[in-house]
Write a structure and sequence with these properties.
The chain has two domains: 161 residues, P-loop containing nucleotide triphosphate hydrolases (Rossmann fold); 61 residues. It is an alpha/beta fold. The chain has a six-stranded mixed sheet with strand order 6-7-8-3-9-10, with helices on both faces. A four-stranded antiparallel sheet has the order 2-1-4-5, with helices on one face. Helix content is 33%, strand content 23%. The structure holds adenosine-5'-triphosphate. Adenosine-5'-triphosphate binds next to helix 1.
Length: 266
């Protein structure tokens, strides 16, 4: 499937992986020969069934494979045109990357304010710089402003997801990796998460979005990759993928209904 010319951007892509293969010990590669691109300013989705390798791609990009006893076996990872293949996770954060992990992963015993401050640590934000970053994030997620003193463990699932997103934003990323932000949330909350992702993107942050909720992801993406068995099975704009009946029925969780719902014009 061909790449959409509208994906072109002036600068280097926020993210480019070239022929990346990665795996976990003797089990072989969980991801094979994966090349993908997130143009600056875009939302790009990585879709696929359980075990397709989506999280492994995220780990390869963030530099966290080693933490999970995995390793990159070949290929190249570039952030904003710079080769980061061998770089530590912290160097990638300094290059503008932040990751919002699957399962929310907030610190339950810490308050919302403390969780946010922890997100600013990677940038060594303190005092006025920390307040400034926090104000920026709370402007995008105002609901959290009312919950600053509450322990994160007492928040609802939706609020914890908002907090996980907010914490990732505290480092002012230029590229945000989001792993299943809609997982386990009620449809109404999924809508809110969707709107927040749109708003983050409108403020200039490029996003690689891993989702099993293909409908939600495609409704806000300019481009999508469909992963199956660790390889790219198909890629294209949401409209292109939607038009392929076999792909739509087998992988996107849709039949003949349109994949792109309200408000999306691409
Ligand atoms: P899901 O949607 O279920 O989260 P996924 O598409 O994100 O799945 P991955 O989590 O990347 O898929 O898993 C890809 C393959 O790698 C799977 O076969 C999985 O069992 C294996 N895998 C993932 N993490 C590890 C690990 N730490 N050690 C060994 N194998 C792993």
């Amino acid at each position: 499937m061909s790449r959409d010319a509208s994906n072109a951007s002036d600068g280097p892509p926020a993210l480019r992986t070239t022929a990346v293969s990665a795996g976990y010990g003797a089990a072989g590669n969980a991801v094979t020969d994966l090349s993908l691109r997130v143009p600056q300013g875009q939302v790009v989705s990585l879709l696929g069934p359980n075990g397709a390798g989506k999280t492994t791609v995220m780990r390869a990009v963030s530099g966290l494979l080693g933490l999970h006893r995995g390793r990159l076996t070949s290929g190249r990872v570039e952030l904003f045109g710079k080769d980061m293949t061998g770089s530590r996770a912290s160097q990638r954060v300094r290059a503008g990357l932040a990751q919002c992990l699957e399962g929310r992963m907030v610190f339950p015993g810490l308050s919302v304010a403390e969780n946010l401050a922890s997100g600013g640590h990677v940038r060594r934000y303190r005092g006025a710089a920390l307040t400034e970053a926090r104000d920026e994030v709370l402007a995008l997620l105002p609901r959290l402003g009312d919950l600053l003193d509450r322990k994160a463990g007492y928040l609802s699932g939706g609020e914890q997801q908002m907090l996980a997103i907010a914490r990732a934003l505290m480092s002012r990323p230029k590229l945000l990796l989001m792993d299943e932000p809609s997982l386990g949330l009620a449809p109404r909350i999924v809508e809110q998460v969707r709107d927040i992702i749109v708003s983050i993107n409108q403020h200039g942050t490029s996003i690689l979005l891993v989702e099993q909720n293909a409908r939600m992801a495609l409704s806000i993406s300019g481009y999508a990759y469909l992963l199956e068995g660790g390889r790219v099975y198909a890629e294209g704009t949401p409209a292109t993928l939607e038009q392929d009946n076999d792909i739509a029925a087998a992988y996107l969780g849709v039949g003949t209904e349109p994949v792109v719902p309200r408000g999306a014009d691409s």
